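Can't paste images in this forum, so I'm doing it all in text. The chain is below; anyone willing to post the predicted structure tokens underneath?
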Amino acid sequence: MGSEEPRPGITWKALAATEEGGLTFPGSALLEEEHCDEGEGWGFDAVQLSAMLNRRYAVEADPDEVMAWFDEQLRQRGWQPWGGMNFRPGAMGHASYSREASDFTLTVIGRAGDRPWWTFWRRSWSGPELHYDISLSEASAEDP
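Text version of the structure:
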């Protein structure tokens, strides 16, 4: 067996330092954050090896406002919706965008009182605010 030196890879801190990593709808409050450096593994069965930053926010706004704002901000920065389809507004939903080796997903979860019974919801999120997540991931250009 050879002794390969591990390559540094992309860090979650590098993702957080990007414009998109700090992109939040005006007036939003950060509730929690999850992150992984490239190669650590995340997602279902930890098979995703890209660097990842996921942040959950609460804001007093309508879902359509949040979704339209992110769509405009991301498109201005050169991000393209997956499959070339525009996001369709609604109380809950998600939109995915890509640019080079990066992916950005906006997930509008809704409000505590309006959410479906089967969705995960912490007791600490019980306020009247709208909840949404942003997820940013990136893989090294050398990754297949």
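The chain has one domain: 12-138. The two ends are 22 Å apart (CA to CA).
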